[in-house]
Design a protein that fits this description.
single chain; alpha/beta; Rossmann fold; eight-stranded mixed beta sheet; 8 strands
C-alpha cells in the first residue's frame, strides 16, 4: 500500500513524498511484513521532466516492497507539489537528507538504509555522505551536476556502492563512468546490455540488481 507523506528539509521546505512498505501474504491477517532494507529513491533532473513517478523510480518503487524493501520516493524542491525551486543540485542534497531523516526516525536502527538514484538523482545520491547509510546504488549517473570534490567522501567510503550503467547511454558513456570511478572504494560496476539512459525494456535487470544489492547481499 502506498502512503502519501510530507518531508521537511532542514531549510524549512515541505516536499511531497510517497512510501511503500514491504508487503506479504500475511499482512491481510494482521501480521507485519519483514523489512529487509530501506531505500530512498531519487528521481531524474527536475528541469527535464523528472519526477518521483519517472519510469525507473516508479518501477523500483512498485517492485521492491514485495522483496522486503521499505521504499520512500519524493519530489525534489520545486517539482509538482514540493515547495521551493530548482537549486542547481545544491539544495537538492538537503532534500535527500530530509528523506533519510524520515526513514531513520521511523525505522529500527538495525534496518539498513540505502540511497538509490537515477540520472540527476544518482548524482545527488552519490554526493550525499551520511553515517546512517548502508550504501549507494547509482543508476546511469551523468556525473555532471556535482563536482569531484562533492563526490569525494562517498568515493572514498568503504561502504558498498553499485553503479548500474546503460550500454548505450545518450548522456554519459558507460566506459567513461567506469574509468572515472575506477579508484572508488568498494564499488561494483554493472553495464546493462542493450539499455539506453532511460532503460525502456530493461528495467527488469535494474530490479534484479537492486534486489541483489539491497536485500540478498
Amino acid at each position: 500500500m502506498t502512503e502519501r507523506c510530507t518531508l521537511t528539509t532542514r531549510d524549512g521546505l515541505r516536499l511531497e513524498a510517497e512510501r511503500a512498505r514491504p508487503i506479504s501474504a500475511l499482512t491481510a491477517l494482521g501480521a507485519t511484513a519483514e523489512i529487509g532494507a530501506a531505500a530512498v529513491l531519487c528521481h531524474p533532473h527536475p528541469q527535464y521532466g523528472g519526477t518521483m513517478r519517472s519510469l525507473v523510480i516508479s518501477t523500483l518503487f512498485d517492485a521492491l516492497p514485495a522483496r522486503g524493501v521499505d521504499c520512500l520516493r519524493f519530489n525534489f524542491r520545486g517539482v509538482e507539489g514540493s515547495e521551493g525551486e530548482y537549486d542547481h543540485g545544491i539544495g537538492e542534497r538537503s532534500d535527500v537528507v530530509a528523506a533519510i531523516d524520515a526513514l531513520a526516525d521511523d525505522l529500527a536502527a538495525s534496518v539498513a538504509i540505502y540511497l538509490v538514484g537515477w540520472s540527476f538523482g544518482a548524482d545527488m545520491a552519490l554526493a550525499t555522505h551520511d553515517p546512517r547509510l548502508a550504501g549507494w546504488l547509482g543508476i546511469a549517473l551523468p556525473m555532471r551536476f556535482v563536482t569531484d570534490a562533492d563526490r569525494a567522501a562517498v568515493a572514498a567510503d568503504h561502504r558498498p556502492k553499485l553503479l548500474a550503467l546503460a550500454q548505450h547511454d545518450e548522456f554519459r558513456d558507460a566506459q567513461w563512468v567506469m574509468d572515472a570511478t575506477g579508484d572508488w572504494a568498494n564499488t561494483r560496476r554493472e553495464v546493462i546490455a542493450g539499455a539506453s539512459h532511460f532503460f525502456v525494456g530493461r528495467t527488469d535487470r535494474l530490479v534484479e540488481l537492486a534486489d541483489e544489492f539491497l536485500v540478498r547481499r
